[in-house]
Amino acid sequence: MSVTAGEYLKQIAPKLTDEFSERDAQVLLAHVIGHPRAWLLAHLETPLNPPQVDSANQAFSRLEAGEPLPYILGHWEFYGLDFDITPDVLIPRPETELLVERAIRWLKDSPERRTVADVGTGSGVIAVAVAMRVPDVRVLATDISRAALRVAQHNAQKFNVHHRMDFLQCDLLPTHVDPLPTDSHFDLICANLPYVPTKTLHGLPVFGREPTLALDGGEDGLDLYRRLLALSINWLAPRGALLLEIEAAQGMKALSLAYDLFAESTIQLHKDLAGRDRLLEIHLHE
Ligand code: GLN
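Above: the input record for the complex with glutamine. Below: its predicted structure, written as tokens.
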């Protein structure tokens, strides 16, 4: 006896939890039958065939076992764009759109500044969104993970910006012995590096579900930013800028770190929509 989409969702209902919402169930079933969620909700009387029921059962057991929905779907929306993702990369977060908005605004206001580096690019959301919205920029995307870099490259191709992007596997930024595939200086360096303090991370629900490599920022969460700031001195163009996503509790510490290294600059902290410190912005004077 065949079951309709609506009946299937009713059967799932008792399993719903805070982490696995009704909306997630609808998104996942829509994905299995190859339609958008809005279509599914307008066609709940659609019968599911046995292979669809099998795939839905498999997908729902993965979700119940704690696998994040975006990894099961294989894609996730960021900045209005549908990025492909794999468990090799962090799931894009809406807070990161703040960084992308600032980057785009600054590049649009300064038409002569056109070289950007996105350090620790992961799925490439920052680099690709910037390249999409600012048509004449050139972006270097780096990551220490080759698997992540492949996802970023794939997304650059998906949105057809790959011809204005370079990809480099390295630890943060290239050292001077590495060949650099782009100009020797960047007008803008962006990064959403791993910034969760190790101990905090071990107590979070994301631990073990998203790559530790993309989350673990060392003892106080600022290990990678400390290194990036020191490296950036060599790579920033005169009057260049840095936009760095940080953890809410790190605002003051990140600020003083930035002042130590970039005394001659304008440094600001910006809050996300939830009112928490989220973005460190540094503008060099000369
Ligand atoms: N914002 C992410 C989280 O809350 C962390 C991202 C990062 O470490 N860059 O899990």
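Notes for the reader.
The CA atoms of residues 131 and 137 lie 6 Å apart.
Residues 79-83+87-284 form a domain with the Rossmann fold fold (CATH 3.40.50.150).
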